[in-house]
Amino acid sequence: MLDGWTDASNRSIYAVMFCCPDFHLFLGVLDLTLKRHTATNIRVALLDLFKKLGIPFRKAVGICTDSPSTMVKFRKDLILVDGFSWLITFPCSLHVLNNLIKDICKDDKVAPVVSANSKLTSFFTSSHFWLESARSWMKVNNITKGLTTLARTRWYSMSQVCLCGNSFKSFFFSAMLKSNDTSDDSPVISHSVQDCISSRHFNLNSQLVDVIKPISDAIGRLESQEATVVDAMIEIFKIAKQLRGLPDYNPFKECATLALARRVRVFDDCTNFSLLYLSPKHKALAISKKYSLEDVRRRMFEIARDWNWERNDVIILNVELNNYISNQNCFAFTPSAINDVRDFWTKKELQSPYLARFAKLILSLDLTPRGSKVFFRHYL
Questions:
Q1: Per-residue pLDDT tens for 241-259?
Q2: 42: domain range?
Q3: How far apart are CA 256 and CA 214, in angstroms?
Q4: What is the pTM assigned to this prediction?
Q5: Which of 95, 173, 306, 379 could form a disulfide with 86 if both were Cys (CB 3.0 to 4.6 A apart)?
Q6: Are residues 105 and 196 located together in one domain of the fold?
Q7: Residues 253, 243: Cα–Cα separation, whole Å
Q8: Measured between alpha carbons, how far is 379 from 298 in angstroms, rounded to an integer?
Q9: 128 and 260 assigned to the same domain
Q10: What is the largest CA-CA distance in the chain?
């Protein structure tokens, strides 16, 4: 797993994490401060790190990065240029969903609502008087989450700004009335801010929250766990289902649906649907007209061959996979409610060792940068 950062000394660095089925290991830092951030330079620095540590790159099963064009090229070049054909590459799920919120917020219909929310929260958090008034109002009304300002590098925060807009609606109106009351000595609220405090704005904001909240909830769930491809894809399906369920009169439904289709295209790959099939609860969801059961089966065998599995191992894998497909032997009484896919396969190691080994290995890669974020937060 690779994740970039700029530290307090303005150095441009990348943390490299090695994710195994049972533990995560911090390998080192790539310092690219004096170099251009090209796919080639990042690749060379990564391979040099593995060489210095004495770890054969062959031991890497897959690699996860965020998805700017440089990193997309970096992932492709590892396979096409360096010849690491067995490597499975994944985009960071949190980066994809964060960019999804960014796309929605920059839509022409959405931008004015976002701008009004930002103006409200910026004004009331920058004024000592109104910020204290807001805190007092929160205590009286049992509101636990305070006003949130926008972090431009993390568009997930925009959803929190919109949610705050709805929560503080009555406070904003009461503050405006106080400001306009000549007998009250409250500080003046500018006309540009007062223009944002309207029933029309809050009605639009409420509909925007209906669109953004499923995405922010998905980000929250993925941040709280070591997310696999399965977790990321299930969250995407949930978002799509919730957006479809919105009423057609919601003015932001269409742009959100189109943005979702564009952003999640990076997960539309037979490899990812093959991994989804390894979740007993979602086997049916993984099979479609585009990716048949035979396509999924073939892709699993291709991965096993890319990993240099012996022919006899692949034959046994095929037998165990047939049992899993037909719910036979140790898979005959698979529970419908399985919360942890990796734990499920750990428990199957004795009865179905080859398929369990395959599943645990391929699901070991964490699709969120939680490990590197912890490193950056504590050590830099």
A1: 999 999 999 999 999 999 9
A2: 2-91
A3: 11
A4: 0.84
A5: 306
A6: yes
A7: 7
A8: 44
A9: yes
A10: 88
